[in-house]
Amino acid sequence: MPSTFLIRLPAPDSDHSEWLSVDEAGNPLGPRQRGPLNLAAAVIGNARLVVLAPATQILLAEPELPPGSGVKLARAVPFALEEQLTEDIDTLYFAIGRRNERGRTAVAVVSRSVLESWLGMLEAAGLEPAAIYPDMSLMPDNPSQTILWLEHDRLAVRRPGTLPFAVELTPVGEALIVAGVIADPDEVLPEPKVPESAVLYVTREDWVRVQDDFELMIEKFESLKIQLLADGPLPWLARELKHTDAVNLLQGEFATQPDYGARWQQWRLPTFLAAGLLCVHLGAQALQIHRANQQSAALDAEISALFTSAMPSEALHDPRRQMQSRLERIRKSDTGPEYFLRTMQVLSGAVASVPQTSFDALSYRDQTLDLKVTAPSIAALSQLSQAVSKQGLVADIQSSTPVGAGVEAHLQIRSATARKRS
Question: How far apart are CA 278 and CA 284, in angstroms?
Answer without folding.
Answer: 10
